[in-house]
Amino acid sequence: MSCEHRDPDRWNVCRACGHHAWLPPAARIRLIARDFVERDARLRGRDPLGFPGYPGSVERARERTGAVEAVVAGEGSVDGVRCALVVGDFAFLGGSMGAAVGEKVARAYDRARRSRLPVVVVTSSGGARMQEGMVSLVQMPKTVEARRLHAEAGLGQVSVLASPTTGGVYASFGSLADVILAEPGATVGFAGPRVVSDLTGSAPPPDVHTAEHAHAHGLVDLIVPRGVQRRTLGTVLRSLTAAAAKPRPVAPTRPARPGRLGAWERLQLARHPDRPTGPEVARGILTDAFELRGDRSGSDDEAVRVLMGALRTTGARVVVIAQDASTPRGMRPGGYRKVRRAVRAAGRLGLPVVTVIGTRGADPLPDSEAAGIAGAIARTFETLLACPSPSVAVVWGEGGSGGALALGACDRLVAMENSVFSVIAPEGAA
Fold this sequence. Notes:
By secondary structure, the chain is an alpha/beta fold. It is built from 16 helices and 15 strands. The strands form two sheets. Strands 1, 2, 3, 4, 5, 6, 7 and 8 form an eight-stranded mixed sheet that branches. Strands 9, 10, 11, 12, 13, 14 and 15 form a seven-stranded mixed sheet that branches. Helix 12 links the parallel strand 11 and strand 12.
């Protein structure tokens, strides 16, 4: 939990510290969904190890919470989008994942796959249920396999990391979502801070196991307070389920005739500080959009931004990947990993990809070399060329070298007036 001042009767923000109080699954579902129908409500586990006192602990948890197990699963509508819901309950034995929890989660994915529904997961767990030993631990690959089959069917998942989200739930289906949201101040991490203290003898820094720390390192896309979660989830779900939607027609436009300017003059226009950046272009052409943050490996390169949303002209849902030439460094390996993450998701979900090219080249500094910048560019070519979705590259400002071309290997490439695309920046060539 996010604080010591839990008040289960209020279900909102703690008066003592401002953190979110515990929220039971029923209240959580009412907060984000409508027309919820629960599935596998009576499914319960056993005592596989004959662990002393375990059956009594389970019965006391049931009496205290009114729940049968530490997760509730079913289907409902979130902001008008039908989806499967999986909601954890930390009050039930710390939200731990035993055999029954793993089975309910796996069944939820299987039903969603058969019904062609996205999945919304709200996690609140301390990890594996120790009293069930390895029977508990193997629920991690079991739920991951159910999630994999669901994803391979071209269906999306959103996770909401409530406090705490740690251990086996976080290291399995909880962290595999296409889009990961987290509540402000939530405790998030594989090993919780008390576990770290017990195992190492020293407490970790207070800000490490937080949603904000995960967001800063590209492990969480958005920090979302409870009051706006339904609307935010609706925005995300509409993009994840948009492959079958028909875009509005748009009238064709005539291409502009370029003026008679020299190459150097055009380069200065491409570099002009008042020229909108790639991310500004992306936000300008999209509505109902949100940003994907990070490469899921510990970094979030600000030199490239990824947005999902609807094109203002047609309403078609797309993934836009935009380089930002205004950043002090070119794209680093983590930036190309972020691009590959976005392209893979777009291809699996059937979403078109638009790249906005604007960089003099990839970052040449020693730390990027040590992190494998060349291989990162090569794998980005590989991922984009293999993308099954339609793709369009737009040269917006200045594009230079393989660092720009890595985002240009699309089905179509267009160049805006007064843009430049070259083998290397003139200064480097000279």
